[in-house]
Automatic annotation (TrEMBL):
It comes from Corynebacterium suedekumii. It comes from the Bacteria. Belongs to the class I-like SAM-binding methyltransferase superfamily. TRM61 family. It catalyses: adenosine(58) in tRNA + S-adenosyl-L-methionine = N(1)-methyladenosine(58) in tRNA + S-adenosyl-L-homocysteine + H(+). This is tRNA (adenine(58)-N(1))-methyltransferase TrmI. Catalyzes the S-adenosyl-L-methionine-dependent formation of N(1)-methyladenine at position 58 (m1A58) in tRNA. The lineage of its organism: Bacteria, Bacillati, Actinomycetota, Actinomycetes, Mycobacteriales.
Length: 278
């Protein structure tokens, strides 16, 4: 699929009308987009620049842009809840997902994180995504295939329980492990066994009891750095003259992020120094 340049067959295009309503179509030569505001021929759009306006048979204008990955993630069919873009951004940067990285992910869920990881690891990387539920894996595969216009060679989606996975199953150690599941602490022994020394482990948990469990689990294994925990809060602003102010509504809580790095084998983690109580 193309990320930029004039529209081509196969592109996923978002049409926005005067009321800021969005409609999405896959460009097919000879195809037609029908709405109560008239018909737009796909051939009118093919060859136009992004950011152009197309007019329907009934004289209505639609603004045209390619679907961004974030649009795809928020509008695609879901089997499981997706990781929100604000948290994905944290995972990609804090988790240091680099071009060429070998990344292990579980569960694949609806494939939202998978597609972001795939784009970040690039053509020389690898993303192995485990999913325990067949129906969720099907959603993930359909969503990833639709976004990329086919199955990326760099993606290896697998049906299975991550708890049973060995380093041999993965064809060797991985650089990064990202878990988004209800009980990630059950998979910590696998994370220990498959993560390369210095590798980054991140997980995403929604509740405080989960956060406490995973932090304790990481500490107990004694093969990781002291874990960090945080959350990301994003608040939109309305910017209109004297009415400029933060929006009233926000997604105040999605989940907590946890990060730890794998120590080399046999290394005892330095004890974190805490301030003495008065
Ligand atoms: C919240 S969803 C993941 C969503 C995904 N990160 C996304 O952005 O689309 C959690 C998934 O983990 C799967 N899961 C839970 N435990 C698992 C395990 N031990 N191994 C593999 N998958 C697991 C669940 O079936 C579920 O689909």
């Amino acid at each position: 699929m193309a990320y930029s340049g004039p529209f081509q067959p196969g592109d996923r295009v978002q049409l926005t009308d005067a009321k800021r309503r969005h409609f999405t179509l896959n460009l097919v030569p000879g195809g037609k987009f029908h709405s109560h505001k008239g018909i737009v021929e796909h051939d009118q759009i093919i060859g136009m620049d992004e950011g152009s306006v197309v007019t329907s048979t009934m004289g209505s204008d639609f603004l045209l842009f390619r679907h961004l990955m974030v649009d795809h993630v928020l509008s695609m069919p879901r089997g499981a809840a997706v990781i929100y873009p604000k948290d994905t951004a944290q995972i990609l940067v804090e988790g240091d997902i680099f071009p060429g990285a070998r990344v292990l992910e579980a569960g694949a869920g609806s494939g939202a994180l998978s597609m972001n990881l795939l784009r970040a690891v690039g053509e020389k990387g690898k993303v192995i995504s485990y999913e325990i539920r067949e129906d969720h894996l099907e959603y993930a595969q359909a969503n990833v295939d639709e976004y990329f216009g086919g199955r990326p060679d760099t993606w290896d989606p697998r049906l299975g329980d991550l708890k049973d996975v060995t380093v041999d199953d993965l064809g060797g150690p991985v650089d990064r492990v990202i878990l988004d599941m209800v009980e990630p602490w059950d998979c910590l022994p696998v994370v220990r066994d498959v993560l390369i020394p210095g590798g980054v482990f991140m997980t995403y948990v929604a509740t405080v009891p989960q956060l406490m469990n995973i932090m304790e689990g990481i500490r107990e294994l004694q093969c990781f750095t002291e874990p960090r925990a945080w959350e990301s809060l994003v608040r939109e602003w309305k910017v209109e003259g004297l009415a400029t102010r933060p929006e009233h509504r926000m997604n105040a809580h999605t989940a907590f992020l946890v990060l730890a790095r794998r120590l080399a084998d046999g290394v005892t983690p330095p004890r974190p120094q805490r301030r003495a109580r008065r």
